[in-house]
Amino acid sequence: MLLFRQLLGIDVSAKKLVVHFLRQYSDLSTKCAGSKSFDNTKNGLVKLFTWLDKRIDSAYPVQCIMEATGVYHELAAYTLHDAERPTCIVLPNRIKAYARSLNNYSKTDDIDAEMIARFAAANKLNNWAPPSPHMRQLRTLTRERQQIVNERTEVKCQRVAYRASAHPPAKTLERIEGRIRFLDRQAAEIEKELKELCAADEVLSRGLKILKSMPGVQLITACVLMAETDCFALFNNRNQLIKYAGLDIVDKQSGTSVRGRSKVSKRGNSHLRAALFMPAKTVSKKTGAMSQLFEKQFAKYNNYNKALMPVQRKLLLLAYALFKTDTLYDPNYNNN
């Protein structure tokens, strides 16, 4: 029985890294070679490397696997990548589903690290590659702007409520107006930074030109599409993209007794779906294939948002096709 590969499952939290080191053999059996907890800091990662190097067999590959946990996993992921240690980042729901398939419903940091390592032993996972600095900045700016827009919407709703009250408080309304002006300035600053960032990067500049050639797509939508998909480099086919965006269809049917309604999963990237909502709304009001698709879906469901979903999916696939072929949108393409 020969050693096949070595796997390090890492459960990440804000302050701790709990690791589980697993050896997998040629008959696909596994054996734990150690587990330990380290601080989620640069010094803690140095100690992790020292601990790991004492246990690995340098003749066989070692893959480090962790869950995507907001921003808490980023320090470990980037440090491992910079140290040229193959790293894989997995969505937490995949680990959870795998643990349940083993009838494991307990949850501790040690168990989670073990499940991550065993999940990697049961699957072939692609190594993670970090986005470019410009791409990281683009994602940070687009998400920051969305937070500002959401906050501005909340404050405007408060303004409407106060104005409708029996005795509108003048000082409170004055402060609300000041907050709205402040948020407007911040949103404008971010839009300016987005333009400068895209102009400074050849790939982003070309991508922006391609996406803005599409109907209904302007600066913000184009930037969100590029930021959340790494300029579509994360995907090998359109089905992967649709599932990543949470725009895939989920069926519920079994035998003759279960006849559930098909629905959009909405389990993917919510930032993509939010960015595509207004463009879909815009093109659905115009003449053309998108409008016909919307009218067909609206006649079927009699629900505005449900009818927009297929239009959002169509726009996303169109953006993917244009980006992959490096082609500007041609409204007369079907007539040529």
TrEMBL record:
<protein>
    <submittedName>
        <fullName>Transposase</fullName>
    </submittedName>
</protein>
<dbReference type="GO" id="GO:0004803">
    <property type="term" value="F:transposase activity"/>
</dbReference>
<dbReference type="Pfam" id="PF02371">
    <property type="entry name" value="Transposase_20"/>
</dbReference>
<feature type="coiled-coil region">
    <location>
        <begin position="138"/>
        <end position="200"/>
    </location>
</feature>
<keyword id="KW-0175">Coiled coil</keyword>
<dbReference type="InterPro" id="IPR047650">
    <property type="entry name" value="Transpos_IS110"/>
</dbReference>
<feature type="domain" description="Transposase IS110-like N-terminal">
    <location>
        <begin position="8"/>
        <end position="158"/>
    </location>
</feature>
<dbReference type="Pfam" id="PF01548">
    <property type="entry name" value="DEDD_Tnp_IS110"/>
</dbReference>
<feature type="domain" description="Transposase IS116/IS110/IS902 C-terminal">
    <location>
        <begin position="209"/>
        <end position="292"/>
    </location>
</feature>
<dbReference type="InterPro" id="IPR002525">
    <property type="entry name" value="Transp_IS110-like_N"/>
</dbReference>
<dbReference type="InterPro" id="IPR003346">
    <property type="entry name" value="Transposase_20"/>
</dbReference>
<dbReference type="GO" id="GO:0003677">
    <property type="term" value="F:DNA binding"/>
</dbReference>
<dbReference type="GO" id="GO:0006313">
    <property type="term" value="P:DNA transposition"/>
</dbReference>
